[in-house]
Amino acid sequence: MYNPSVAGSGETTSSGSRMYVFEVIGLGQGADAGVTKATVRQSGSTCFQIPYSRMSQTVQRISRMGGKILSIRPLGEAGGSAAPAVQSNSAEPSKSMSIPMPQAADKKKHADVPVNTYRPKDPFVGKCISNEPLVGEGGIGMVQHVKMDLSGGDLRYVEGQSIGIIAEGEDDKGKPHKIRLYSIASTGHGDDLDDKTVSLCVRQLEYEDPETKQLVKGVCSTYLCNLQPGADIKITGPVGKEMLLPEEEDSNIVMLGTGTGIAPFRAYLWRMFKDEERAKNPDYQFKGFAWLFFGIPTSPNILYKEELEEMQQRYPDNFRLTYAISREQKNAEGGRMYIQHRVAEYADELWTLIQNEKTHVYICGLRGMEGGIDEAIAAAAAKEGVEWSEYQRALKKAGRWHVETY
Q1: Catalytic site residues?
Q2: The pTM is what?
């Protein structure tokens, strides 16, 4: 059954009600809801408490009152709160906040990540271990979790990479099928935590041929979805450095995914919150804040639902889970609820979070969602006089805006 406690407003969760301490100087004397309870001094700083759900509104109010934010920190941070902290770098108090641009990333980062250990002309031949359905009864389409054995080879990978699959058989020209890339859905240790497996989340592609009007099924996706345990499978890669996690344990990770775009995010979340996985990684114990926006058509299509909701319940201060269920939920205009509509609902919070230099944003899934996401965040940025397209370019150069869509 769909759990509304993890799909609705942030104010109904512990994430939305967490308290933050704002330290501010230069506030004017005009009344403004949300900050009037603070004792405003002519010199020195003023501190007051604000819930997470009102952070973005508070930043705007402080700006209107001519204030300068010295810092934003979680209440009781010393006690181990892992929610995001934001710090303003405004040089002078002004009526519009000065938003610093992200700094360019170190291009040498991730230089040791393995790439193309196996190529199409000489693929690794693994075996299918298991092939399990992920769509519940009443759901739409066929999505499988395929786990493969890598024993006897040198194929190693990290979270956020992809592998290539070569389907058995030949194309209509009598040539071997071309490789198809799939985002890896397991951590580098694999689902069995023995460094011997890799897993994929695969949806069987089906579409109507525009000329013949006949149903066409994707060659490689159909091959994978029907792969039997014990069968050989040709694997290439790994490839990709675009979707890699930052090394810092206190990073904030925003994930925006649709359908099988959940694959890399499952790997991230296992690395962050799975007890057995954390035990395998003593040098990486996630202390930051992760927020997953997941777009699916129906509740039975919530892939890895039990895993996601268990993590959210066990780590409410570190993991926030927000669904956009298009055929069951309505957006503000009364239409279907897509992921861009959820982003629009939380755009002010996301914009505040994005300005934190420790925040990385990852987008994976259907390419069509990017425009709506940009539009929503652009509206929030514009309230503070920031041109989103320019700021986004700086985020990309800083290695903090990651996109893998299809």
Answers
A1: 182-183, 364, 404, 406
A2: 0.77
